[in-house]
Design a protein that fits this description.
Length: 291
């Protein structure tokens, strides 16, 4: 790989606080996304692998791989997800992103089963030229069970350290939510907890489980269920039931949670791509696996 003069390639540099801060500045500049909260809470981990080009103390371009422990069709394996891809405007159109992407794929070749990502619409042509294949993504739609509502659900606030650590404990001890496709990365789940799902975490002590969900226009959207023993949907729903509910939308395969009929709905929001053999025709990507 030819590195342009004046630039330095660095990887696995999170122990260097100045370099880590430079990467974070790039994320803030490009995506208005500050990783400091994730870092301060102690969840920014080495499975999030950077491949960055530095100009002195500035990251001018970067590609990251998040290495994910997963269950795919009953097998424990490891996947890699490309994320945090970006180049400062002044350094664009020089092939830097392509160079870093190729380098990251080579590095990951013997470390994972396949690579996936979720693209921005403007980046679709780029990933197609890099050998990625677009695929479709789905969610599962379930009927609302007939239950007697029960009390005993507790909202957890990740801004409270004790409650945040309780969520992390559930994430560390969880069983795979699906035999079809599950991801088991507690630190990545905590990123979602701190940023996207901070108002959606609820503990059900009677079931010894934690559920991330919210309700929108008659739809109960369940993002994840954390438990050592996955509860039945009917038992879980009794604690979150509302008369206004018309359907349940799950952002994961529900084969362990639900034995009834389910429908698949095509998701339009994300643009998933894969690199390498892909073992699904109609995948439901676990929401908390998105890096």
């Amino acid at each position: 790989m030819h590195i342009p003069e004046g630039l330095t390639l660095r990887t696995a540099y999170w122990q260097d606080k100045k370099a880590k801060a430079a990467f974070n500045r790039l994320m803030i500049t490009l995506f208005n996304l500050d990783f400091s909260q994730w870092d301060t809470a102690g969840y920014w981990d080495d499975r999030f692998v950077p491949f960055s080009l530095f100009k002195a103390d500035t990251v001018v371009a970067s590609v990251c791989l998040y290495m994910l422990n997963a269950v795919v069709h009953g097998r424990h394996t490891r996947l890699a997800q490309i994320s945090s891809v970006g180049t400062l405007p002044a350094w664009r159109r020089r092939g830097l992103a392509r160079m870093l992407n190729d380098y990251a794929l080579t590095w990951a070749r013997d470390r994972q089963e396949w690579v996936f990502l979720f693209a921005d619409p403007k980046a679709v042509p780029f990933y197609e030229t890099c050998g990625f294949t677009p695929i479709k993504e789905y969610v599962e739609i379930l009927s609302v069970p007939d239950v007697t509502p029960r009390k005993g659900i507790i909202r957890l606030d990740p801004a409270v350290p004790r409650e945040r650590e309780k969520i992390y404990h559930y994430a560390q001890c969880r069983a795979p939510l699906s035999r079809i496709f599950s991801v088991l990365n507690a630190n990545l789940l905590m990123f979602h907890t701190l940023y996207w799902l901070k108002n959606c975490a609820y503990e059900i002590p009677d079931l010894d489980c934690l559920v991330f969900y919210k309700r929108l226009e008659g739809c109960v959207k369940i993002y994840d269920v954390l438990a050592e023993n996955i509860p039945d949907l009917k038992a879980l729903y009794a604690y979150i039931a509302s008369p206004e509910d018309q359907r349940i939308e799950c952002r994961f395969h529900t084969d362990k949670l639900y034995a009834g009929k389910r429908k698949l709905k095509l998701l339009q929001d994300n643009l998933p791509f894969v690199h390498g053999p892909f073992p699904f025709k109609q995948p439901v990507f676990p929401y908390t696996s998105l890096a």
